[in-house]
Amino acid sequence: MPTPPVQLEEVDGRNCLPSIFLVTSTQLQLQCEIPSLSSQWAGSVVGNIIQSFNKLQPSKMVYLNEPEVWVDLTPDSAGRKSKSLIEPFIEGTYRKFNSNTAHIDNNYDTMQALSHYSYHKSDGQRLVCDLQGGYYNDYYVLTDPVVCSLSQEFGVTDLGAKGIENFFAHHQCNHRCQSHWKKPEAPMRRFAPVSATTFRRPC
Ligand SMILES: [Zn+2]
Q1: Yes or no: is domain 13-170 CATH 3.20.200.10?
Q2: Which of 4-8, 10-14, 161-165 has the highest mean pLDDT?
């Protein structure tokens, strides 16, 4: 049996993990140490894949929240100005469509197809998963996605090749997936699916 990765609370700034809390009615602040951004941020990769996916005319358009760094105008006693990662507030019910251990909500076909498509579009190099956010009449808004990659370059939530294999061992293609989309030859269950984001054990 494979060893499951450490399951940390998502609210844990010590590991530079985004912990989401309400700042105002219109914004969420991601409490995250800025150096964590040194590992490649998944957003730009995911944004490109979503853009391409939207051209396939899914039932609902998909948008991605992009965080930005805000600097506090008032310095602390040592003259330092704190920084925060801010992104727009997700209105309505916050939903988890899938996770990086392939906890999959099959009520959202478009989301599962998007994850599958990301693997196809990246020629088998990457899987966009941990899809979560808002679901509305005409569109989805996603936040804080995970990229699992063969090169494992996207930080502590990138479960690498095992994460990719595991997703496809649990994924069932739906009518929004296209039959020619690439899939791993021998997907294998590597992790027990849990809805919370899973983080790799530190080396
Ligand atoms: Zn599929």
Answers
A1: yes
A2: 161-165
